Amino acid sequence: MARILITSGPTRQYLDPVRYLTNASSGRMGAALASAAINEGHEVVIVSGPVSVEYPLRAKLINVVTTDEMLEAATETFAKCDGAIGAAAPCDYMPRFIQKQKIAKTGEPLQLELVETPDIVATLGQQKRRGQWVVGFALETQDRRFRATVKLEKKLCDLIVSNGPQAIDSDQNDVELLDGAGNVIAAIHGNKEIVARKLLKKITKFIQ
Ligand code: C5P
């Protein structure tokens, strides 16, 4: 049985004390993967951004808010895990400067300067020791297979789950599990719980 890290949910990047950028992510896919892994007898640690979904009580839950916090918790946890599944939708950009006070409206357009946040899955991919594995997700609106495979390579993943924008705010998902050569290991459609169960079986079988 394995110890699996699952990143889940969105992250937030604050502009000022009340406003933030985020991603549309409910955490439901992460929660479903965690339940599936626990039911298969694995130990699960979830690093999650702010969500209202309920995670299985038997998973260890580490709550974070920003992408940097998720990165820190994930890298620390991954060192003690066999594998990781990156189901989170971390916010990819953050304001270069965070204002300490609430930004007052002036009637003029507000320009924001954004810089990229660190890529958590790519960092785990670089951190991977012999025997450890990383599975990423890729949400694409076009050329799904090709783009997902490029991401797998760039982020040093072992497998990648390609899905489309219909996954957002939906209880359904339609995914393909791809290996580094772009081979389709599995094509799964159904509610996120069914998709998670089948995905996990395929992932653990492939990784063995
Ligand atoms: O590059 P893109 O965001 O499409 O990649 C999606 C994959 O990368 C997902 O597995 C997601 O959890 C992960 N990711 C990450 N850190 C980021 C952005 C994406 O771990 N900053």
Primary descriptors:
single chain, 208 residues, alpha/beta, Rossmann fold, 8-stranded mixed β-sheet, two-stranded antiparallel ribbon, 28% helix, globular, binds cytidine-5'-monophosphate
Structure description:
With 208 residues, this protein is α/β, with parallel strands linked by helices. It has one domain (3-95, 114-207): Rossmann fold. Helices cover 28% and strands 28% of the residues. It is built from five helices and twelve strands. It has an eight-stranded mixed β-sheet with strand order 5-4-1-6-9-10-11-12, with helices on both faces. A two-stranded antiparallel ribbon has the order 2-3. The protein has a two-stranded antiparallel ribbon with strand order 7-8. Helix 4 (144-154) links the parallel strand 9 (133-139) and strand 10. Helix 2 (67-78) packs parallel to helix 3 (120-127). Bound molecules: cytidine-5'-monophosphate. Cytidine-5'-monophosphate (C5P) binds next to helix 3 and strand 9. Residues 7, 67, 86, 88, 90, 92, 117, 119-121, 136-139, 151 line the site of cytidine-5'-monophosphate (C5P). This is Coenzyme A biosynthesis bifunctional protein CoaBC.
